[in-house]
């Protein structure tokens, strides 16, 4: 990716430069560097921070929790005949030591064991927000990995169907918690300019887990080898339990919990080499209620020498501005209701790093119902509706009917020819989707979220039409080609953007509530689709992808009309522009200019994607 700062919210480079110069005079210069590295002319605003190895390694470590989700889904997609002994009589009951080679299951019991993962995921997602708000994002992931480890041990040592199902349920709860907390944590530590890049690792991890889980299950063909396969997520959990405590907590969570010094240290660690004063201000503005008494705020900290060193290294003009700001009003109040702006005369020094910053009123965490009804400081109804629609569309697009070979179009086409063809095709579909995800990683912070979503949903609509036509009239080769293209298109936007856009449009005070609701709906829709697809296949199999095509087409229209562009936009600006009731965000087409050229139309088409 280019190292040049991308345009922020559609503004040109001149406006961006002017804003940065203004921020340099508004906020005291605070640098995340050591004493001997301070050079006021070298450091940029941290909101334009580039690639960071620290953030990348932290994201990769958190992604192990997400790989467990994909692994847990994929490992039972293929291994039914390896784990199950449907008849209680037969060679499957032979034992290897204390554990049977296969576990007696009835067909209904196996269906429950497979589906109960999503039930546990729903329950885990419901409590994910409360857990992350009470003990922190990082600590919630550490505790959750203990739960995942317990579920892995239960499945690996299962001797009965109930024992195995209980393990699936426990690990399902861990998957649900991870789906909510991992996105929140990565979204809060990622720099604004690379937010889409780091956020895309969630879907990449799910696909990797699906791919390697299915491959491992296909090769666990003898004895009790399947026990190692189903218990393998415990290895990921042990790695995270050992290494996650070494990473910093989310600065925004620490601010919300009033741990000012810890938040300062975390932000400086994440943005080393950048001026973080403006980002600190935005983090405070994303809280619901903050009343900071700055009468005792001062520019020294015995525990962080870089702060004082940076202030002393500020050029004369900037130092004069900072000193002038110190004499302004000493109190900042952010209202709980209405949309009043923060007083422009408030000293920015009250938002910088001080030894003690007494908070007179506790920050208020908005619940799900308050957020849905618009009873928060900012009316978030429109933004919440966008997040919910995008999350639900992931399941309504019909991906489950493509991926899982126990039921779906792949099995219907290939099973009559070879029982092994369908599982291998599902593996190949997952493998060929990886290039789509890597392409999205490269484009998401260049093209924007709307462009990827519109291209993805539009491509899936076309593929659903082709699949339906092939199911009605043939040939099967057209159906299989459309299946590959459909999953490729899914991973170019519709499967990636919904996971990280929540943290781009919802402020910190409602982020946990929004994540809880959206992730819970994702798991509910997963259960619903798992129940409905077999019924539809038994009644009108050829019409299944006609239904999915209608959903993806409806999603395309909804994204075009209502979903705002969030690339390189601070949350405060997104909320300011799109708070309120549900409204159309697409701009009207411009008329042709006087010469009749099509330049105006071209620009308007670009605005349709960028908005």
Description:
The protein is mainly alpha-helical. It contains 27 helices and 6 strands. A two-stranded parallel sheet has the order 1-4. A hairpin with a 2-residue loop joins β2 and β3 (99-100).
Descriptive key words:
mainly alpha; two-stranded parallel ribbon; 27 helices; 64% helix; disordered N terminus
What is the structure about, briefly put?
Helices cover about 65% and strands about 0% of the residues.
Q: Strand tally, please?
A: 6
**Overall residue-averaged pLDDT value:** 76
Distance between the termini: 23 Å
- Main sheet: which strands, in order across? 1-4
Query: What oligomeric arrangement do these chains adopt?
Result: single chain
Low-confidence stretches: 1-8, 20-41, 87-96, 289-363, 589-606
Task: Classify the secondary structure makeup into a structural class.
Answer: mainly alpha
Indicate the radius of gyration in whole angstroms: 26 Å
What is the general shape? globular
What is the percent of helical residues? 55-70%
Q: How do the helices and strands line up, and which of them pair or pack?
A:
Blueprint: H1 13-26, H2 53-78, H3 80-83, E1 84-85, E2 95-96, E3 99-100, E4 103-104, H4 107-135, H5 137-156, H6 161-189, H7 195-199, H8 201-219, H9 225-231, H10 233-243, H11 251-256, H12 260-270, H13 277-285, E5 291-293, H14 305-312, H15 316-326, E6 331-333, H16 368-372, H17 381-396, H18 399-403, H19 409-414, H20 421-447, H21 449-473, H22 476-494, H23 497-505, H24 508-539, H25 544-562, H26 571-578, H27 599-610
